[in-house]
Amino acid sequence: MKILTAVFKGSSPDLASCPVSGLPEFALIGRSNVGKSSLINMLTRSEGLAKVSQIPGKTQLINFFTINNSWNLIDLPGYGYAKVGKKERGKFSAFVADYLKNRSNLRGTFVLIDSRLSPQSLDLEFLHWMVGCGLPFILVFTKTDALSKGAAQKNIEAFLTGMREITEEEPTYVRSSFKDQQGRKEILGLIGQALLDNPA
Question: Nearest 5°: phi and psi at 19?
């Protein structure tokens, strides 16, 4: 898939405020500071399209990016940011869950996992919720350039082992690195196939 245009369309605080759109949508979600903005910029090859912040928890809205005037890429708030108050965390979780369960034109969700870390309970808890809701997802292991290939693979395999306690199905996953552009072709290929399988 070639990306010819990528435009930031706006942000919404909840599902009710999301723009009415017939375009298929693909969402990105993960722990705060996992690299969602960097992944969006890599996929679109538009440096600065998504604002990269060193401050965890910066994204607190549902952000919409329209690609090729034919589908939307959605940046969802990261989960697990400790410095956001408990009330706010609950609110974020509620509207994110509402979007994931009830957005009719959502075609797929990419769950980003930091490959530098051993399996984190917050990631596994979120994926347990996704499986329980019957929501399909693809794992994207980010920042693979930060470790040796062997060390990153060890963490990935440990995470996949943890996933076996949640689901019997082996999840589809992609290794990703902004620095090396790793994973770009694979992720866009998965989106392209989903659009072919379910265009409307």
Answer: -65, 140
Q: How many residues does the chain have?
A: 200
Residue 85 pLDDT class (50, 70, 90 cuts): low
Highest-scoring range by mean pLDDT, 11-15, 28-32, 33-37, 112-116: 112-116
Look at residues 105, 21, 9 and name the one whose alpha carbon lies nearest to residue 62: 9
CA nearest to 123, candidates 162, 97, 82:
162
What is the Cα–Cα distance from 98 to 138, expressed in whole angstroms? Answer: 19
Number of domains in the chain: 1
Q: 171 falls in which pLDDT band (50, 70, 90)?
A: very high
**CATH number of 44's domain:** 3.40.50.300
Judge contact between 34 and 171, C-beta under 8 A: no
Q: Please give the C-alpha separations between residue 79 and each of 11, 32, 48, 147, in angstroms, as whole numbers.
A: 17, 6, 22, 24
Which sign, positive or negative, has the C-alpha torsion 147, 153, 156, 158? negative
Residue that is written with structure tokens 């995470």 in the block: 159
**Which residue, 11, 163, 176, 143, is CA-closest to 77?**
11
Q: Which domain holds residue 172?
A: 6-197
Is residue 1 included in any domain, yes or no? no
